[in-house]
Design brief:
The protein is of the alpha/beta class and 252 residues long. It is built from 8 helices and 12 strands. The protein has an 8-stranded mixed β-sheet with strand order 1-2-4-3-5-6-11-12, sandwiched between helices. It has a two-stranded antiparallel ribbon with strand order 7-8. Strands 9-10 form a two-stranded antiparallel ribbon. Helix 2 crosses helix 3. It binds 3-(4-hydroxy-3-methoxyphenyl)-2-propenoic acid (FER).
Length: 252
């Protein structure tokens, strides 16, 4: 199915738990840079959440997967807008109780930023290897291992998979102060990060965990950016945290 964000069609999939109930919590799940909603780690998290009674809404974000938009034209602002649209779609469903926002890497950064903007409608954030260093990298002139002059931003830089990223991505990223967004989300946060992540340093999650008012941090020893080695442990960390949230939801 498609969910439309201001004329941009976002390819999305809504999946329900097997057990029949009147209301379910729902997690919106965001992939990372050059990623898509069918990636192994995205599916593993989504299927586990369905098993424990949580509906999931996965989507391809602007310029990725089977959604509209060109990869080169995507920016964090466009992804934040997409995430807000997905959350509002979830809010329009009458079977949804609490809404969680989950994202991997650049999708994790998007979840951090959108969490601040929509703090009052989100029950929790699940940040998987969140790429919180992107804005500072953009200010320093260092993204994707490709140095550039941050005061004279090139019209394009080379990205992964032989793709090209437009300079507006960098301009937007430079404007974002992650440390101003983080404290605007005071609800429950889970951070999951492999300590052998070569794309996003584990320090990003260690630092963010300290800045959040109410965060838990699960470091996966020996794991990489997409949980290549210990996906089961990453999934288990999310499962334990989410089961606890759902128990607390029921008490409330
Ligand atoms: C970068 C390092 C990591 C970067 C993006 C990422 C745009 C994102 C990784 C991901 O989403 O998986 O320098 O620059």
């Amino acid at each position: 199915m498609y969910i439309t964000d201001d004329g941009i069609r976002l390819n999305a999939s809504l999946e329900m738990p097997k057990e029949k109930k009147e209301k379910y919590p729902l997690a919106v799940i965001l992939h990372g840079f050059t990623g898509h909603m069918e990636e192994r780690h995205i599916l593993a998290i989504s299927h586990m959440l369905n098993e424990i009674g949580c509906a999931t809404l996965r989507a391809d974000l602007y310029g990725h997967g089977h959604s509209d938009g060109e990869f080169r034209n995507h920016t964090l602002f466009k992804w934040m807008g997409n995430a807000m649209t997905l959350i509002d779609y979830a809010r329009s469903l009458d079977f949804v109780s609490d809404i969680y926002l989950c994202g991997h890497s650049q999708g994790g950064l998007t979840a951090m930023l959108t969490g601040a903007l929509k703090h009052d409608v989100l029950r929790g954030l699940i940040l998987l290897s969140p790429a919180s260093m992107i804005p500072e990298g953009a200010r320093q002139g260092q993204l994707l291992g490709y140095p550039f002059d941050p005061e004279h931003i090139p019209d394009e830089i080379p990205a992964w998979n032989n793709q090209t990223l437009g300079g507006n991505y960098i301009r937007v990223a430079q404007s974002i102060r992650v440390e101003e967004y983080i404290p605007r989300y005071e609800g429950s946060v889970l951070l999951v990060h492999g300590d052998a992540d070569g794309a996003v340093p584990v320090q990003c999650s260690i630092d963010a965990a300290k800045q959040y008012k109410n965060a838990e941090l699960a470091i996966i020893a020996g794991d990489g950016h997409c949980y290549e080695n210990h996906l089961d442990q990453a999934v288990k960390a999310v499962r334990g945290w989410m089961e606890k949230q759902i128990r607390e939801e029921k008490k409330a």
